[in-house]
Amino acid sequence: SSNEHKLNFKKSKEACLSYIQDALLQKQWKRAAEFLTCYVESLEKDYSREHIGPSEIIWRIGTEILWHHSQSCMKEFNCFMEQMKTLGVKRYLKVCLEHIFHLLCNGQIDEAYQNLSLAESWRFGEQTAIQDKEMKLIQAYRGLLDYYSWSKQKNILLENGEDGFSDLAVEQEMHGYFRKAAVNLKEIIKIPGVWDIFVKCYVDLLEFYGDHNEARQVLNEYAYNSKFPANPNAHVYLYQFLKRQGESKKSLISALKILHDIVPSHELMIDFNTMLQKSKKRKKRRLGLEVIFTGLDYAGWKENAKAWSCLARQVKQIVISEKHLDWIKHEWNSRKDWWPAFHFSRYLAKRNWQENKSLSYEKALVAGILLGKDCKYFKYVSHQGCKAQLKRFRMLKKFMNRHSLVYLRISG
What we know:
Order of helices and strands: HHHHHHHHHHHHHHHHHHHHHHH
Number of strands: 0
Largest sheet: none
GO cellular component, one term: RNA polymerase I transcription regulator complex
Protein name: TAF1A polymerase
Structural class: mainly alpha
InterPro entries: SL1/TIF-IB_Component, TAF1A
Number of helices: 23
Organism: Toxostoma redivivum
Distance between the termini: 85 Å
Helix content: over 70%
Pfam family, one: TAF1_subA
C-alpha cells in the first residue's frame, strides 16, 4: 500500500543517514560517500511519492566528505557546489559563501573574487531581502579581497620607492582598491557581531591614509558598544592602536584593565603588570601583583619565564622594603593549598632546571619567599645552582637566609 511504502521509505532513509553519520564520525570518507550516493538515488526514485526537502542534508554532508576525501579534487568540489546552488534559493548565498571559503583555503583568490561578484549580483524576488545578512557578508568578503589587492599594490609601491610617473598607474589602482574595500568593510562592521578580520583591515586602510580619528572611532565602537558581543580581541586592537599613537599610560592601562576582566590569562597581561609596577600609585602597584598572580593560576602560564620574572621582581622589592607584605599574604592565602603542587613540586624543579635555568631561578625565588627555604622546589634548584657554581644562585641562597622570617609572616 501507499502508506506502507511511505513508512518503509522513511525507515530506510533514516537508516541510511545513520550509516552516513557513523562513517563520518569514524572518518571513513569513502564509505560515507557510498552511503550518500545511495541516499541521493533513493530520493530520486521516491521523490514523486513524498515531498521531501533534503538539499541541505546533501549539501552539508557532501561538502564534508569532499573536503576530507583523499580522491576529491577542486574540479569535483566546484561542480558539486554549483549543483548545490541550484537545489534551493533559500540557501543560495550560504552555499556561495562556503564555496568561496573553500576557494580561499586553496589559494584560488581570483576564482573566489569572481564567485563573490556573481553572488553579489544575484536577485530572486523576496528572497533577496530575506537574505540581506548573507548578502552583506558576500560584500564584506569582496571588500576583504579588495583590501588584499590594495595591500599587494601598496607593497609594490613601497618596494619601488619614489620612481615618479612609473608608479602613477600602481598608485591609482591602489586607491581604486582602497575605495572599494573601505565601502564594503565599513558596512559590515556597523552590524553587531564579531568582525575581527574586517575591523583590522579597515583600520589598516584608515591609518595608512592618516584618518586616525575615524580609526579610533571604529575601534572604540567595536570595543565598547553594548550591542556587540563581548570580544577580547576588540580591546586588544584598541590597545595596540593607542600604543601606536603614543597615547598616555592612563589610556593604555584603561584598555588593558577591561581586557584583564574578560581574559585574565591574556599574554598582554605581562605588559599590563609592567605598566602598573611603574606607577607611583600604591593602588595600581597592588593591582599589578594581583594581575600577575592571577595569570600564573592558568596552566598556559606555568613555564612563562617573563611572568615569573615579573612576579619575582615585585615580591623581592616588597620583601626588601618590608612594606606591603600583606599584599603578598592576601594573594597567597587563596593559593597556598594548590600552588605548591601546581608550580613547586620536585618534579617541576628538575624539569625546569634541565630546560630553562633562568625560569627555575625566578620560580625558586618566588617559592622561597612563599614557602620558605625548606620548600622542595627552592632546595633542589638552589642546590643545583650552587653545585654548578652559578653566582646568581649563591646570591639567591644568601637572600633567602637573610629574609627567612618573611615566610613566617606571609604564612601567618
